[in-house]
Amino acid sequence: MNKDRPKYRQIIEAAVEVIAENGYHASQVSKIAKKANVADGTIYLYFKNKEDILISVFKEKMGHFIDKTVKAISEKETAKEKLLTFIQMHYKQLSESPYLAIVTQLELRQSKPELRAEINKVLKSYLNVIDSIIKQGLEENDIQTDINPQLIRQMIFGTLDETVTTWVMKSQRYPLIDQAEEVHQLLTKGFFK
Amino acid sequence: MNKDRPKYRQIIEAAVEVIAENGYHASQVSKIAKKANVADGTIYLYFKNKEDILISVFKEKMGHFIDKTVKAISEKETAKEKLLTFIQMHYKQLSESPYLAIVTQLELRQSKPELRAEINKVLKSYLNVIDSIIKQGLEENDIQTDINPQLIRQMIFGTLDETVTTWVMKSQRYPLIDQAEEVHQLLTKGFFK
Amino acid sequence: MNKDRPKYRQIIEAAVEVIAENGYHASQVSKIAKKANVADGTIYLYFKNKEDILISVFKEKMGHFIDKTVKAISEKETAKEKLLTFIQMHYKQLSESPYLAIVTQLELRQSKPELRAEINKVLKSYLNVIDSIIKQGLEENDIQTDINPQLIRQMIFGTLDETVTTWVMKSQRYPLIDQAEEVHQLLTKGFFK
Amino acid sequence: MNKDRPKYRQIIEAAVEVIAENGYHASQVSKIAKKANVADGTIYLYFKNKEDILISVFKEKMGHFIDKTVKAISEKETAKEKLLTFIQMHYKQLSESPYLAIVTQLELRQSKPELRAEINKVLKSYLNVIDSIIKQGLEENDIQTDINPQLIRQMIFGTLDETVTTWVMKSQRYPLIDQAEEVHQLLTKGFFK
DNA sequence: GATGAATGAGAATTCATTCAT
DNA sequence: TATGAATGAATTCTCATTCAT
Question: What UniProt keywords are attached to this protein's entry (chains A, B, C, D) (predicted)?
C-alpha cells in the first residue's frame, strides 16, 4: 500500500470531493472510483473498505492541516499570538478547502463507534496543539489559573467549530478569516463588561 | 396523526434509544418496531418514512427541551442570570436524557439536505433563545457593544456543544452540570488576565 | 352475503371505477373501500378476498350485459339481424360504461389461473349467445356449412374485442356504435371482391 | 448494455418462461434470476428495473417475430398470398414458442400506462405489416374499397388474437397452423352465403 | 497491479387481511 | 353488522466487496 503512488492520491482527492458533495452515506465506492479514474476494484488495493477511505481521507488531510498549523504557531512567541495564529490557520485552511470543511464539519460526526474512535485519535493531536498553547499561557502567567484548562480548550475548539459550521451552512458566503481577531478577542476577554 | 395515541409515544421512545445505540443509518426500522413492541407496518401509520421518524423525534424532544429552558429563564431577571440558567438547563436536560444527547450531538449532523433543513428549523428556535438573552444584555448595558452578537451566540452554543460532546465521548463519566458556573464565567469573562 | 344490501352495490360500483382508473394491481382494497364509503374491513363481509371482488364485478356486470343482449336479440327474427343486434349491443353497452370497457378489455386479461377460470366461466355464456346465432344461421341455410362454426365465433368475438380495445386505447374519441353495420358487413361478407 | 453478452440472453429466456408460467405480477425478480442462473443483482446490470425486463422481452421477441414475418411475406406476390402467409407465420411462430404466446396474449394486456405505451410502439410495427398488405390489396383492386381499411386490419388482428387465445386457453391441444387456410378464407370471404 | 462483471446480503416499504371493539 | 388500527409477509432494488482475467 505504497501511499506515494499516484492512484492513492487520486482516490483520496476524489473521495473528498464526492463525500463533500453527497455525504458519506450517499457516496458510493463506484462514484469515487469513477471520479478518481480507476476501476472499482482498484480502490480495494489501497483501502481495506469504504470506512477506511473516510478515515484515510481524514488522517491524510488533517495531518497536513495540523502540520501547517504547528509550523505557523512555532513562528510566534507568546501564547496570545499563538492562539490568534491558531484561529487564523483554522479559518484559513478550511476556507481554502471548502470540500474538506464540509467533510469535517458534517460527515465526520458519524456515531459508528469504530469510526469515531479513529477520527478522535486524529482529532486528539489537533486538540493537543491547543492544549500546548494553553499550557504556555499558564506558564507565562497570562491565563487565569483558576479555570480548568480542559474547559478552556473545549471553549476554543467549540467556538471555532460552531463558527465554521455556521459558515458552511450559510454556503460560505462571507470570508471566514475576517472573524479571526474578533473571535480571538471574544475568547480571551469574554463578552461581559 | 393523533400524537396522543400510545403507539406514537412508544415508537418515539424506542427510536431515541435505538438511534442512540446504533446511529441513524444502522437503525433499521424493524429494530425500532421491535423495541417499540409494534409491527413494522405500524410505524408507517404514524410516520411517513424512516427520515420522518428522526425528524419527529428531534422536534418532539427538542420542543420540550426548549420549552423547559424558556420557562426556567423567564424566572430570572438579568441577562447574566439568564445565561447561567440557560447553561444549567442545557447540561441538566442532556444529563437526564443521555440517549437524547447522543442523538442530538452526533446523529443530527447529517448532511442530507432535506433532513438538515428540518433540523435547522427546530434548532433555530433554540438559538433564538440565546439571541434574546444577548439582546437583553446589550440593553442592560452589560455586554460589550463592539462585538458581533452572532459571534457571541456562536461561542456560547459552540462551547456548550463541545463540552457535551466531550462528555458523551467520555461515556458521561462526570457530572456535566458541575461545569455550569465555570463555563458561564469563562464565556462572560474569557480566560485571559 | 345478501347481494341486495346497499353496501354490496356501493362496493361493486366503487370497484369498477377504481379498477378502471388504476388497473387491478394498483387498486388497493383501501382505495375501493374509501370510494365506496365503507371501512376496509366491511369489504370482507361481502367478498372473500380481493380477487373475489374482481370476479364478482365481472359476473355482476357481465350478467346484466348478457341479459340485455339476449333480450334484444330475441326480438329479431333472422340470424343475420340477430348478429347485427349483437354487435350493436356489444358496442352500445361498452360505450355507455367506459369504465366497464376498460376493465373487461384490459384488466381481465390476467393470467392468474384461478382468476381466468372464473372469468372464462362467465365469458362462456356470452360466447354461447354467439354460437346460438351461428347455429340458427346454419339452420336457416344462411351460413356456409363448410366452415368450422367455432372459427366463425372466434372471428366475431375477436373482431369485436379488437375494435373495442382500439377504441379504449384511443381514449374513446369516436362513437363506437357507428361502426356496427360496417363490421357486420365485413364479418359476413369478408373484404375480398 | 451489450446485448451479446450471454447473461443478457439467459435472463431474457428465463424471463419469458417464468412470466409465461406465473404471469408478470407473480414473477419475482429473484425467480427469474434463479432460472437464469445469475444473482439477483446481475439482473440490474442489464435491466433498469422489473418493468424493463418485460418490455425488453417483448421488444426482443417481437422484433424477431416481425422480421421473420416480413421476410416470409416479401417472397409472395399478391396481397391474397401475403395475407395467407401472414396468418401462417403468426400461427407457426406462436406454436413454436408457446411461452411467448402466453406472454403476448395475456401478460401484455397490462393497463399500466408507461408499459402499454412501450408495448404499443412495438405492436404498431406489426400492425403496420397488416396495413401494408391491405394497401397492396387495394392497389391490386382485390379488396373492396368501400370498407374502412382500419377495420379490416382490426378484424384480421382480432381474429388471429382470439384464435390464439382460445388455443392457449385450451392448453394448445390442437395444431394451430391447420386453421390458417380456413381462417384466411373466412376473413376474405366472410361466412355468409 | 488493475479491471469491472458478478455477487447476494440487507433494508425500506406496501398492502391484503384480521379481529377487538 | 361495521369499523379501522394493527399486523407482518413479501418484494424490489442497492451497493460494498470479491475474484477471474
Answer: DNA-binding, Repressor
Q: What is the CATH number of the domain that holds C58?
A: 1.10.357.10
Q: Are residues B65 and B31 in the same domain?
A: no
**Judged by CB atoms within 8 Å, which residues 70-109 of B form the interface with A?**
80, 102, 105-107, 109
> Do D60 and D7 belong together in one domain?
no
Cα separation, B158 vs B176, whole angstroms: 16
Whole-number Cα distances in Å, D101 to B16, D9, D68, D86? 55, 19, 16, 16
- Minimal Cα distance from C26: which residue of D? D112
The string of pLDDT tens digits covering residues A90-132 is 999 999 988 888 888 777 776 677 777 888 888 999 999 999 9
Which residues of chain A lie closer than 8 angstroms to B83, CB-CB?
A: none
In degrees and rounded to multiples of 5, residue C72 shows phi and psi of -60, -40
DSSP D77-109: -SHHHHHHHHHHHHHHHHHH-HHHHHIIIIIT-
CA dihedral A27, A33, A39, A41 (to 10 degrees): -50
Last residue in a domain, options B47, B64, B81: B47
Same domain, yes or no, for B81 and B130?
Answer: yes
Q: Are residues D137 and D176 in the same domain?
A: yes
Chain C positions touching D151 (Cβ under 8 A) are 163, 179, 182-183, 186
Q: How far apart are CA D188 and CA D68, in angstroms?
A: 23
Interface test with B, best of A122, A139, A159 (most B CBs within 10 A): A159
Long-range contacts of D138-143 (CB under 8 A, 24+ apart): D140/D78, D140/D79, D141/C193, D142/C192, D142/C193, D142/D78, D142/D79, D142/D80, D143/C191, D143/C192, D143/C193, D143/D79
Is residue B37 packed enough to be buried (19+ CB in 10 Å), middle (13-18) or exposed (0-12)? exposed
Residue C155 and residue C112 share a domain:
yes
Structurally, chain D folds into a number of domains equal to 2
Same domain flag for B58 and B11:
no
**Residue D151 to residue C161, Cβ atoms within 8 A:** no
The ranges of chain A with pLDDT < 50 are 1
Q: Three-class SS of residue B192?
A: strand
Q: What pLDDT score was predicted for residue A111? A: 62
Nearest-nucleotide field for C40 (CA, C1') = F4
**Whole-number Cα distances in Å, C6 to A52, A186, C3, C29, C55:** 66, 77, 8, 18, 19
How many helices (DSSP H) and strands (DSSP E) are in chain C? Answer: 9, 0
Q: Say yes or no: C56 and C12 in one domain.
A: no
Whether residues B94 and B110 fall in one domain: yes
DSSP 8-state symbol, D179:
G
Domain CATH for A43: 1.10.10.60
D1 confidence band (pLDDT: 50, 70, 90): very low
Q: Which of C47, C67, C83 is the last residue of a domain?
A: C47
Residues with CB under 7 A from strand E: A 1-2, 5, 7, 38-42, 44-45; B 27-30, 40-41, 43-44, 49-50; C 26-30, 40-41, 43-44, 49-51; D 5, 7, 38-42, 44-45
Host domain of residue A15: 1-47
B182 — pLDDT class (breaks 50, 70, 90): very high
